[in-house]
Amino acid sequence: MAAKKSSSEGVLSRVSSTISESPIVYRGKRAASDAGFVAKKLLKSTGKAAWIAGTTFLILVVPLIIEMDREAQLNELELQQASLLGTPAVGVPQKYGSNGVKFKQKQNERKQQQHQLV
Amino acid sequence: MAALVPPPVSPAAAEAIKPEKVDYMDLPTPIPYEEIHREALMSLKPEHFEGMRVDFTKGLNQRFSLSHSIIMGPTEIPSQSAETIKIPTAHYEFGANFIDPKLMLFGRVLTDGRVNARVKCDLSENLSMKANAQLTSEPHMSHGMVNFDYKGTDYRAQFQLGNGALLGASYIQSVTPNLSLGGEVFWAGQHRKSGLGYAARYNTDKMVAAGQVASTGMVALSYVQKVSEKVSLASDLMYNYMSRDVTASFGYDYILRQCRLRGKIDSNGCTSAFLEERLNMGLNFILSAEIDHMKKDYKFGFGLTVGE
């Protein structure tokens, strides 16, 4: 019986070791670990790229969208007022346009002064 | 722009419209040499800050005004290591401005002991003088500089004198109504260095392109395109051929009715934005953001500017 056991164990252990040490399984394991390594790196670099893209978008684009939206709202309001009061549409934008030009001119003047005196 | 317009052409000969003739004796005065990159600087380099800033300007007179300013926030200390070291500081600045068509005086005093003074004076119709000085309580950090500018019909010449035996001269000439070329030469006595530089600027109604080369190894090129009345895009390249350092940056500048928004991205991985919003008459709200992805340095600031 001992001989039978040892031989059956021997067969089982031999079969399992053949399977676990076969070149196919070995290559499969290596491929899996490589794939895991690459996937981890990819995830990390995608995460980094997403972070950089997200924060850059937040800083550069979001204020722009907000401001353009406000400008569009202001334009709409003006148009409404112009049509309500019955003044021709040409008159009103000029008035606000001159305000905008004044703002820009003041900005430019201040910046020019600062730059001139450097 | 000065140009001789040809007499109106009859409709029959409309195919032979002559181009406008340029009068080379009547070119416009060029931009001063140090302002050659003015448009690009205005769009790409707003004054970013970190922390809180409140400026209050009160006009006492038509010409005289006082300004009070409070700045609180971390300031960077230059350090040898790669890390940035920031120390929170706060100071108050008091200033007085006198603005006259012929004479402008600006003075500023800070609580950390620095005094700034600027003078701009028109000595005659063509000759003007600018001076600025900064006094500090640290030894050997005070400096002053005087400039004399002469404005000719289509050229400008400038002579500069600074402490530490700094001498400089520059000259810029309008070559065509759109193109102006100039050169400068300087000598720094304290460091025994001298340098030569050339600059060129080409501008039309829609764009400005400027280039500058200096013998200190700096090459700076800039291009600003005015896409519409409210929007302009700017790009800038700075190359130091001694230290092989290149920096390119792109930015936009939106001037809307209620605000002015400037954004910029850099090849050093630095992106920044600066927003000035008009909340009310005489009240401006400022937001500044600067993110440096390489150094992982984040600076955000907000502020208020009160007064005209």
Considering the chains and any ligands shown, give keywords for the structure.
heterodimer, A: 118 residues, mainly alpha, rod-shaped, B: 308 residues, mainly beta, Porin, 19-stranded mixed barrel, two-stranded antiparallel sheet, 2% helix, disordered N terminus
Count the domains of chain A.
1
DSSP E strands of chain B, number: 21
- Mean pLDDT reading of chain A: 77
User: What's the number of structural domains of chain B?
Assistant: 1
Largest interface summary: A-B, 28 and 35 residues
Walkthrough of the structure:
The complex is a heterodimer of chains A (118) and B (308). Chain A has 118 residues and is an all-alpha fold. Chain A contains 4 helices and no strands. Chain A has one domain. Chain B has a single domain, classed as Porin (Beta Barrel), CATH 2.40.160.10. In chain B, the strands form 2 sheets. Chain B has a 19-stranded mixed beta barrel. Chain B has a two-stranded antiparallel sheet with strand order 1-2. At the A-B interface, helix 2, helix 3 and helix 4 of A face helix 1, strand 17, strand 18, strand 19 and strand 20 of B. Chain A: Keywords: Membrane, Mitochondrion, Mitochondrion outer membrane, Protein transport, Receptor, Translocation, Transmembrane, Transmembrane helix, Transport.
Task: Write a compact overview of the structure shown.
Chain B: Belongs to the Tom40 family. Chain B: Keywords: Acetylation, Ion transport, Membrane, Mitochondrion, Mitochondrion outer membrane, Porin, Protein transport, Transmembrane, Transmembrane beta strand, Transport. With 118 residues, chain A is mostly helical.
